[in-house]
Amino acid sequence: WDDFPDVLPRLKKQFLCVSFTLLSFKLIIDTARKNNLTWDAVFSCEGIGKYKILPEAYETAAKWLQLEPSECGMVACHNFDLDAAKKVGFKEVGFTSNCNALTNKTAERLLKAGLNCIIPSVDGITKKVHETIRPRTDFEKIIENVKYFISYRNKHDFNCKVLIRMIKQQLNYQQWEDYKIFWGKLLNTAKGDDILGIDIHNN
What we know:
Blueprint: H1 4-12, E1 18-21, H2 25-34, E2 41-44, H3 45-48, H4 55-64, H5 79-87, E3 94-97, H6 104-112, E4 117-120, H7 127-133, H8 139-156, E5 161-168, H9 176-184, E6 194-199
Parallel strand pairs: 1-2, 3-4, 4-5, 5-6
Helix pairs in contact: 6-8
């Protein structure tokens, strides 16, 4: 997710953020350095001596953090990883994304894995405004990706709320009311869906 490096420092203010991986220490450290990711810790299964999806791998990661599994949350891109973590007591997790890479296949995999919250960050109701705020994203693709996620969630009655979020600023402030109308027609409050507006100060 190309928006993650900017989000990680904010997450670290409230949570321990740890990379828990099947990859080697060297590979994940090199990847973190290349992408400017500053984890609180890196746990590799090669150091634990037990590999995913063995319960001992997840239990050891929690133990090293001096936490119970029920105090840990898991973010992962593989169904087997999320399922195995949940079996030992890890919490389900939601995450924020610009959804540029939220393909239909990825949406289906996330929902089937038990994701219980997704927060699409869409910063405008028009292509020009959104892509000015978030360069290198495709507004039309993001809208279609989120629409598909919602429709697939509804069709199969998955328990996952969708919190559409706008970072309100000078460029998009006048679009807020239209934004709420547009997304309000697609969301389902019975599922816990909502529209979030977060103000930032622009000079």
